[in-house]
Structure formats: structure tokens, C-alpha cells
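Course assignment 3, question 2. Fill in each field.
Student: A.L.
Task: Predict the tertiary structure for the chain below.
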Amino acid sequence: MRALRLALRLAAAAVLTAAISTAASAAVYPPQRQLPAQTISDFKASPNSLLQQYPTGGAQMISRVRDLGASDPTTVPGLIALLKDPATTKDQMRAIVTGLAQLARMAAQSDAAFADEIQRGIAGTNSADVIAAYQAAIGDVEIAATGGSGGGGSTGGGISQGGNNNGQGSFGSSSTPNAQGNLQPGQVGSLTSVSPR
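Answer field:
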């Protein structure tokens, strides 16, 4: 049973990686703002090097994550993979998620499919901590949902913050909040449940 679950997770990760690579065909940043090709190549060759570069997470790691994704969308699967890596600390996880949330907000303006794929990647981690951190980082901006077909707008579910949940985020097509207590923007709480899809 455990082997089957692992096989299904690996298959889902492969599909997600292919979907992100397909949907994200163009960089968010214009060429003059993109990171140097060598920086991107170094990250792709060894995504874990980001963890050594920024052992405490922080603002510089947030910027690097955002800039990597905005310079080359094919770096996003590597960033998502770091969220699943047991070597990633909570501070690093928050920085990666915040950088991805900033990237998703920027992408929502020009490439809603890419913004949606970032959100799907976050949801695909199946980590309550990662999802809660994303909800806190994204604030009141709702990005395309994890259900339905590509594109922007409401597709029947998703990760959102705000609405009538007393500041609590909801995940999935249910309007039932997942976090208990009142989360303020910028706070990270823990989810008590995730709506099944």
C-alpha cells in the first residue's frame, strides 16, 4: 500500500513538473531584469545549493526565489521540490513560499496559467504548513484555483485568503476554513484539515 502511494505521488510530481514547464513558457521578467544565465543554470544543476546560500531564509532568499521563477519559469519545479525536502528549515520554507507567492502575484498580471501552476505546485506539496504559509503570503489576492481548467479567475476552488472566513484561508471548493483562530496578514498558522479533492 505504501509503495502504491509513493508511486502515485511520484507520478503526480512528474505530471506537475510537465504542466508547469508547459504552462510557463515565457519569463515574467523582461530580458534586462532576468538573472544571469549562469545563476539559473547553477540553480537547476543543484537546487539544494539555495539552502546552503540562505541557511536562515530571510528577505534575500525571498528575492532570489522570486527572481529565479520570474527569470526562468522552469526553475519553479525545483523550488517546489525544496518545499518537500526534509533538509529545508521552517524559515527557508517560509522564504521559498513567500517568494513563490510574490511570483504568482506578478505572473497573474501577464500569465494566469503560470500563476495557477504555481498555486497547484503549492497545493501538490500536501503540506499543511506550506499551504498555510502560502495563504499568509498571498494575502487578499486570489489566484486561479486548483480545480477546473487553466486560466485565471474562479475555477471552482483554490487557495484564497479573505472573504467571510474571519481572515482564515480556505483550500478546495469548500467555504469551510481550514485554520482555527484569527490569522492576520503575514502570520503563519497551521491547518487542521485540508478539503479532499
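Instructor remarks: The chain is about 55% helix and 5% strand. Residues 15-24, 140-197 have pLDDT under 50 and may be disordered.
Grade: pending
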